[in-house]
Amino acid sequence: MSSIRVLLADDQTLVRAAFAMLVESAGDMDVVGQAGTGREAVASAREARADVVVMDIRMPDLDGIEATRLLAADEDLAGVKVLVLTTYDTDEHVVEALRAGASGFLVKDTRPAELLDAIRIVAAGDSLLSPGPTARLIARVLRAPEVPAPSTAGALGQLSERERQVLALVARGLNNSEIAETLGLSPLTAKTHVSRIMGKLAARDRAQLVIAAYESGLVAPSG
């Protein structure tokens, strides 16, 4: 298997250097570029053809959210995944990054092994969403509107009742195996449902499914 190509975007040189040493120590990934601003990150991702961009939210010139949005909008970079870094798991900008197309987020004080695992997860096309801090964060920021957003509410009408049930469980942070057990399905059937929902809602990954579930009012914040 080819190595995962990783681009590191952070305005702190020492932080980038530490992350670079960590990534290079893994046998299945390589650092293909570094960037100190969001604009540099976008340019470097195009040039280096990175698989995963580890993106700090707070950067000069162009912040990580806007950089993520530009990457997600570029059809030539459709395979590039963004893993957002934040100082605190209560940072409300994380939700905007997920809306913009990030595949998940990680706090900067995470353990080294967890960062490497996170890179592998998003490189494989999955999302780094846990039932704990991510779900609580989204629930707090995406307060269910009185009238669901037209775009997400309309798209929700394309889903079958079973698909709506699956989407609600995705939004609660359940993985495919847990969804299968909850609904009495096989893991393969649960995975198929998730894939079909992503296609119908034009979602890049599970992170955007969570956003769509809350914005549409399908799932309401639980306090």
UniProtKB/TrEMBL annotation:
PROSITE patterns registered for this protein in UniProt: HTH_LUXR_2 (PS50043), RESPONSE_REGULATORY (PS50110)
One Pfam family per UniProt: GerE
Ranges of residues in domain Response regulatory: 5-123
Keywords attached to this entry: DNA-binding, Phosphoprotein, Transcription, Transcription regulation
InterPro entries linked: CheY-like_superfamily, NreC/VraR/RcsB-like_REC, Sig_transdc_resp-reg_C-effctor, Sig_transdc_resp-reg_receiver, Tscrpt_reg_LuxR_C, WalR-like
Transcription is among the record's keywords: yes
Domain spans labelled HTH luxR-type: 152-217
Modified residues (4-aspartylphosphate): D56
Source taxon at top rank: Bacteria
Protein name: Response regulator transcription factor
Source species of the chain: Streptomyces endophyticus
